[in-house]
Design goal:
heterodimer, A: alpha+beta, six-stranded mixed sheet, 8 helices, B: about 525 residues, mainly alpha, about 0% strand, globular
């Protein structure tokens, strides 16, 4: 069953068009990540779904019930949509348990539900603490617990890990995903961090300039981005020129197969490879290149190599020591993406299989 | 490492000049409490009992509590409603209202009382006093609550709505608890002001503890009755002032995260937009417009009669001759406790820093009585000198000077002085060459603020000013008391003009004008 369905949604603030026609379907129990740079409209989309702002045009249907269109607006308190804002925003005047109980009806089941949800989020010992007595990660899990307590149709998470430092961020992201799956919640997570999106979501919607540029599985949007913008938003990329002939592209790095998920192209194209797809070797296999500079980054080394008159930056894993000025050989692993001219415009409908 | 610890302790040792400088204001502030304690002790238990359990005392208590409770409730309701409308709705002209709503503070309560009582004798009653003082006091609630609403994390409201709570429930269960400390502190400030109010109540002929104490004092300088009434008043004031200080420290926890708060879409008032706007206009007219119009009326009457204006220059001179030296004394005395508390955190510095705030609820009347008592009994030479009045000013205005100074002193990091020390300066030299130049603008601002505040001070000036010295405030009081409204008007008008400046700065500080988009 479809949990949320959005048709041709637009929104403007004054003369600024923030959303330019969004179509989206998300099945029940799945997690969607809205991935995009700041200002792309992802937070606005979230707020329209939650009901905090009125839509310009289009329609939002949640659990089979229309909740927003240009003519009607169900207020947020009647939508049954949970919301986890940036930095959690636990009410400082209530204990953690008080926060979790806030959205629950008075009655016999209330105390049990609070205990159950605190257990699910691993906070059962901390119910009587006030938010200021909790760590950043605990506050964030508390905010999720508060949103999940009334069993909402959907949970919306607005860059929930932004305020945390990197280590905690990665760990908490995995943890929150686990909790969402355990509670079988349908969830939409807004983020600008591709790793966060890939780790947590079943589907990723890549947004830019008020549109969804691509909708698909994390693997699809990473390995077969529909255009160069999507490629840049979803991770590091190496862009080189090439000539396409159906499913194969001729490049300075030799012939590369075009990803099976992408439509065939002809003629002059821009080829997109992920940096880790280009393998470097001292054995004489592949294309010769000059190593111009190497910058050690810990788990990998960033290497600038010149192939012919073109310089590209690639990512070399492992402990291999690279010496600037040496000649190396490059091979390409896997398929590439290729775009003719400005790149393909994406399919406007985004429906999950 | 073994060397570092003793060196560190030495570097942080509090300089003795700072300790002595802190001791003086602390002793001064304790004088009123000393007075109340000594006089109560002298009266003995039977004396206290016979004075307290009189019908007269009971009447005064009822009047004082009725007035204070009604004004506080009304001011809290008006102030909170205004703050919410200005900060969170699509009220027409909200940006203008943000400043306009605090302007009634520019009319001292006794000036507003002069205006209304000259308009109609019916305002000389308890109901009239409640009406006038509520309108004069609501900005004391409006300003902190508006600031709290402005800085509140908007996500709180979003979350509450997403959890199924409507607008009203969200207001009472989420917004109001967050703004609680600000609302409570503002309301308690109004309460202490009402306990301490003298000028307005005297002009409106409402009998409360302050007016009764003044009457006793006029009969007999060192009256036992006045002292015991003062003791009761102090017992009313101190808890309120203490509570306010406690609440004020809780303000500012409403923001959880870092980064700037996203501005929220204002609530649409719909068909209530015009009525609410008219309410704002009406209250503005009543709290500022009508008193000013009456003032202008009496000014023109006075000018056409062409008399009394020879007193204006001497009164301005009198005000300045007291306010300017007074400001220097107050700010100088406030400097040490602030420096001590900012730079040398510890139990002693905390106590010295807080004592004036606890005592700031004391009415000017009680402070003046206490100083008269102390000077008559222990320091005869000071009796009826300007020095005594300066001491009263210091006790009454230390907290204001402290908070004005604190803001600028906290901006100069101790690191600067440490750098000067590492370049070979001794502690005092480092302080003089690095810290003082950097806090001079702050000191200047504090001086100006306190001088302007002192110009509108009435009660202690009335009681302690050397004979023959009249100020703008005392002239308004004297003329109004004698029913000479036209003669009072020019002094009142000047006072309003003088008051506008500190109100502007106060508003700027608590609302953050520069923050308005």
């Amino acid at each position: 069953m479809t949990s949320i369905s959005i048709r041709n949604l637009t929104k403007s603030f004054g003369s600024e068009r923030v959303l330019r026609g969004i179509d989206l379907d998300l099945p029940e129990g799945k997690i969607l990540a809205l991935l995009g740079p700041s200002g792309c409209g992802k937070t606005t989309l979230l707020r329209l779904i939650a009901g905090f702002d009125a839509v310009g045009a289009g329609e939002i249907v949640v659990g089979g019930r229309p909740v927003a269109s240009a003519r009607s607006h169900v207020p947020p308190e009647r939508r049954r949509i949970g919301y986890v804002p940036q930095e959690g925003a636990l009410f400082p005047h209530l204990t953690l348990a008080g926060n979790v109980a806030f959205g629950l009806r008075r009655g016999a089941g209330r105390v049990d539900r609070v205990r159950e949800i605190l257990k699910l989020t691993g906070l059962e010992e901390l119910g009587q603490r006030y938010p200021r007595e909790l760590s950043g990660g605990q506050q964030q899990r508390g905010a999720l617990a508060r949103a999940l307590a009334p069993s909402p149709e959907i949970v919306l998470l607005d860059e929930p890990f932004n305020a945390l430092d990197l280590d905690l961020r990665r760990a908490l992201c995995e943890e929150v995903t686990r909790m969402l799956r355990k509670s079988r919640a349908t969830a939409i997570l807004v983020t600008h961090d591709p790793q966060e999106a890939f780790v947590s979501a079943d589907y990723v919607a890549v947004m830019q300039s008020g549109r969804i540029m691509q909708f698909g599985s994390p693997e699809a949007v990473y390995h077969a981005p529909l255009n160069a913008d999507v490629a840049r938003i979803t991770g590091g990329c190496v862009l080189i020129e090439g000539r396409a002939d159906g499913k194969v592209v001729q490049t300075d790095l030799g012939p590369i197969a075009l990803s099976a998920d992408l439509p065939a192209v002809q003629g002059a194209v821009t080829v997109m490879l992920r940096p880790e797809q280009i393998r470097i070797s001292r054995q004489e296999t592949g294309v010769a290149a000059l190593l111009k500079a190497a910058s050690f980054r810990g788990a990998h080394t960033d290497a600038d190599v010149a192939v012919g008159d073109r310089e590209i930056r690639i990512s070399v894993p492992g402990a291999e020591r690279l010496q600037a000025g040496a000649t190396v050989w490059l091979t390409v692993e896997g398929a590439c993406a290729a775009y003719s001219g400005e790149g393909e415009m994406p399919d406007r409908r985004h429906r999950a299989a | 490492m073994s060397l570092a610890a003793p060196l560190l302790r030495q570097a942080q040792r509090t300089p003795s000049w700072l300790l002595i400088g802190t001791l003086v204001p602390s002793v001064l502030v304790a004088v009123p409490l000393f007075y109340v304690a000594v006089r109560s002790f002298e009266a003995g238990l039977t004396g206290i009992a016979s004075e307290i359990f009189r019908e007269r005392t009971f009447d005064l208590l009822v009047n004082t509590l009725t007035l204070a409770a009604c004004v506080t409730t009304a001011a809290a309701a008006i102030g909170t409603a205004f703050a919410w409308c200005v900060e969170r709705t699509d009220l027409p002209m909200r940006r203008a209202w943000r400043v306009l709503a605090s302007l009634p503070l520019a009319v001292p309560a006794f000036v507003a009382s002069f205006a209304w009582s000259s308009f109609h004798a019916g305002f000389e009653s308890m109901a009239g006093a409640i009406f006038i003082l509520s309108l004069a006091s609501y900005p004391l609630v409006y300003l902190p609550v508006a600031a709290a609403l402005r800085s509140m994390e908007p996500a709180f409201e979003d979350v509450s709505r997403s959890l199924g709570k409507g607008r009203w429930e969200t207001f009472f269960r989420v917004i109001l608890p967050q703004a609680g400390p600000a609302l409570g502190a503002g309301a308690l400030l109004v309460l202490t002001h009402m306990f301490a109010e003298f000028g307005a109540l005297s002009l409106l002929r409402v009998q409360t503890f302050t007016t009764a104490i003044f009457a006793s004092y006029e009969l007999q300088f060192d009256s036992a009755t006045a002292a015991l009434q003062a003791a009761v008043l102090v017992l009313l004031c101190l808890p309120a002032a203490y509570g306010e200080m406690r609440l004020r420290r809780k303000i500012g926890v409403a923001r959880v995260g870092r980064g700037s708060a996203r501005r929220m879409a204002p609530v649409r008032l719909g068909r209530w937009r015009l009525p609410v706007f008219l309410c704002f206009c009406l209250s503005f007219a009543l709290s500022l417009g009508v008193p000013l119009l009456i003032l202008v009326y009496w000014l023109t009457v006075g000018f056409s009669a062409g008399r009394g204006h020879s007193d204006i220059l001497p009164a301005i001179g009198g005000s300045l001759s007291l306010a300017v030296p007074g400001a220097f004394v107050v700010v100088l005395l406030a400097l040490s406790p602030v420096l001590l508390s900012v730079r040398h955190e510890g139990p002693l510095s905390r106590a010295a820093d807080r004592l004036p705030y606890i005592v700031h609820g004391l009415p000017g009347l009680v402070v003046a009585l206490a100083l008269v008592f102390v000077s008559i009994h222990y320091l005869r030479a000071f009796y009826q000198t300007v020095g005594l009045l300066m001491a009263a000013y210091a006790i009454l205005f230390l907290p204001q000077a402290q908070s004005a100074l604190r803001a600028s002193i906290e901006l100069v990091p101790a690191r600067l002085e440490e750098a000067a020390r590492s370049l070979g300066r001794r502690p005092l030299a480092a302080f003089m060459s690095v810290t003082v130049p950097n806090i001079l603008p702050g000191i200047g601002a504090a001086l100006a603020l306190i001088a302007l505040e002192l110009m509108r001070e009435l009660t202690s000036t009335l009681m302690l000013a050397p004979i023959g010295v009249a100020t703008l405030a005392t002239e308004v009081w004297t003329h109004t008391n004698d029913g000479e409204y036209a003669a009072a008007a020019p002094f009142a008008a000047l006072l309003v003009a003088v008051s506008a400046l500190p109100v502007y700065f106060f508003t700027r500080r608590s609302i953050g004008i520069e923050d308005i988009q």
